[in-house]
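FAQ: What does the model actually see?

It sees only this:
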Amino acid sequence: MKRLSVAALLTVAALWTGNTALAYDEVEVKDGGQIIGHVKFIGAAPKLAAVKVNKNQDVCGKEKASEAIIVGRDNGVKFAIGYLEKIETGKAIDRKKQTDLDQKKCAFTPHVITMVKGTELATTNSDTVLHNANMDVEGRQMFNFGQPKQNQVIVKRVRKTGQVDITCDSHTHMRSYAMVFEHPYHAVTDETGSFILDNVPPGKYTLKVWHESWKVKGLDDDGRPLYDKPILLTKEVVVPAKGIVHANFELK
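And it is asked to produce this:
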């Protein structure tokens, strides 16, 4: 029986585990351009039922407004994520940047965040009740920790990429999302549905927009809505040197 080389074994292991993340090289970007994206909802804004609260109602209230989709001014969609796919070279990553996630009034704030692999996530409990943040990437647990004390902060370095589903084991109505990337070209849409990616090297790129989805397919045992899989929209864009490209996306 022939023995596999170490390199061959590592290749097989990478394929088996799905570890196909692309390396990202940080360079000085000359003549960088800008992408201005906008996500708009077509038609009347969905009216989602409030989410039932089943614990600590004296602090949390009896129900919470759903943040699964928030449609603002001129039908702009808040909390979508715009990002470049498979960009391998670009601006430097701010590795000292810390991303903040608060548990305030029994809700994760902000509802959606993005960050770069290898940077820190600081999770705060601003409430007087116990919260337990449970963070999964593609069904595999990344973090799970309790915060029984008010104003307690736990800082963790994030070492995985992909969509992170964030829930609270103590309060089943609480849910939020994070997207972790190898590169810095990503942003969450604001109240107008806009996002900006700056200092992008000139060239052709695949620009994607992620949204968690607001379409309810059922309820779990605790009465929490179960949504369809997230929505992904794609456009090919060409970024000119020192120029601006606009990209519009529609949800309906």
